[in-house]
């Protein structure tokens, strides 16, 4: 059975996206603003992901100075027709936002970014102006779809008055569920929800951690169990865990096959202490 049938899909702009993608942040030593630890191994992971059926790849401006866009192009160009590249950037003043997007188009060898995700709103310009740049680029054919990261429900609804929003992104995992309200709202509005830090920076992968016993019962790793929980949480959920290991990539993809009963989902809720209150993140100061 192919990956879309195994994990389900979420449709963005008529394109069915596998509900398990690949992020690039973990391909660097620090995860932010650094070069890939091994460009050759990263390229292997990217190609293997596509071969396995993954058709969403997430690359953020904060990962590095265009290194990852260049790496993706070298590894995957010409791109498969069903591949959705999600590029995240900003917040920047509108004029700089346009320049950033046009530069990244060049590095990716694209005429259009399939999905551009704005990383929050800049305080230097009204929300309507920042989204206006993106809708202008959308009309020019340089952006396919618009997403938002690190926004509250209220900010999402304000943004939807100015533009069609395809996806939202926020920190979300078994430990931190502060974005529960945003996730539920996105699901109801048929907006994809992309959790960052789906494994809580490795805390949920600990072989001696709270998931270890249930993972042993299923014959899987704790990290796989954490991903399986995310996929069960909502049909709008699209995790994009990153890795620099082909084997870890295969393990992540295998997580879509883990059956979890309602009883086991309740057990997981009890096993893992939740650090974030289940509220709209816009009602509190945001965590970076």
Global geometry? globular
Rg measurement, Å: 18 Å
What's the multimeric state? single chain
Helical content class: 25-40%
- The helix tally amounts to 11
Which strands sit side by side, in order, in the main sheet? 3-4-5-6-7-8-9
Question: Topology, please?
Answer:
Blueprint: H1 3-7, E1 9-12, E2 15-18, E3 22-23, H2 39-52, E4 56-60, H3 67-76, E5 84-89, H4 94-108, E6 113-119, H5 127-139, E7 143-149, H6 153-160, E8 165-171, H7 180-188, E9 192-196, H8 212-218, H9 222-233, H10 246-254, H11 262-271
Parallel strand pairs: 3-4, 4-5, 5-6, 6-7, 7-8, 8-9
Antiparallel strand pairs: 1-2
Helix pairs in contact: 2-3, 2-10, 4-5
Describe the structure.
The chain is an alpha/beta fold. Helices cover 39% and strands 16% of the residues. The protein has eleven helices and nine strands. It has helices at 3-7, 39-52, 67-76, 94-108, 127-139, 153-160, 180-188, 212-218, 222-233, 246-254, 262-271; strands spanning 9-12, 15-18, 22-23, 56-60, 84-89, 113-119, 143-149, 165-171, 192-196. The strands form two sheets. The protein has a seven-stranded parallel sheet with strand order 3-4-5-6-7-8-9, covered by helices on one side. It has a two-stranded antiparallel sheet with strand order 1-2. Strand 6, helix 5 (127-139) and strand 7 form a beta-alpha-beta unit. Helix 2 (39-52) crosses helix 3 (67-76), helix 2 (39-52) runs parallel beside helix 10 (246-254) and helix 4 packs parallel to helix 5 (127-139). The longest helix is centred in the middle third of the chain and has 15 residues, at 94-108. The chain is globular and about 55 Å long. The relative contact order is 0.14. Residues 277-288 have low confidence and may be disordered.
């Amino acid at each position: 059975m192919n990956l879309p049938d195994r994990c389900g899909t979420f449709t963005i702009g008529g394109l069915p996206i596998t509900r398990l993608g690949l992020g690039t942040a973990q391909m660097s030593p620090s995860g932010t603003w650094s070069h890939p630890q091994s460009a050759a191994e990263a390229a292997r992971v990217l190609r293997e992901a596509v071969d396995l059926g993954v058709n969403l790849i997430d690359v953020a401006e904060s990962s590095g100075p265009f290194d990852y866009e260049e790496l993706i192009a070298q590894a995957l160009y010409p791109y498969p027709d069903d591949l959705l590249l999600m590029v995240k950037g900003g917040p920047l003043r509108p004029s700089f936002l346009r320049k950033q997007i046009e530069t990244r188009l060049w590095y990716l060898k694209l005429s259009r970014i399939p999905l551009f995700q704005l990383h929050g709103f800049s305080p230097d310009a009204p929300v309507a102006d920042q989204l206006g740049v993106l809708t202008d680029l959308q009309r020019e054919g340089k952006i396919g779809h618009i997403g938002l990261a690190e926004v509250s429900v209220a900010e999402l609804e304000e943004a939807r008055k100015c533009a069609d929003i395809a996806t939202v992104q926020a920190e979300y995992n078994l430990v931190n569920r502060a974005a529960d309200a945003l996730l539920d709202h996105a699901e109801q509005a048929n907006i994809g929800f992309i959790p960052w830090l789906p494994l809580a920076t490795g805390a949920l992968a600990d072989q001696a951690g709270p998931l270890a016993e249930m993972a042993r019962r299923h014959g899987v790793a704790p990290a796989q169990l954490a991903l399986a929980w995310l996929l069960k949480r909502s049909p709008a959920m699209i995790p994009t865990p990153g890795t620099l290991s082909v084997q870890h990539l295969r393990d992540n993809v295998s997580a879509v096959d883990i059956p979890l009963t309602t009883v086991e989902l309740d057990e997981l809720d009890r096993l893992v202490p939740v650090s974030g209150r289940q509220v709209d993140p816009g009602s509190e100061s945001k965590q970076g």
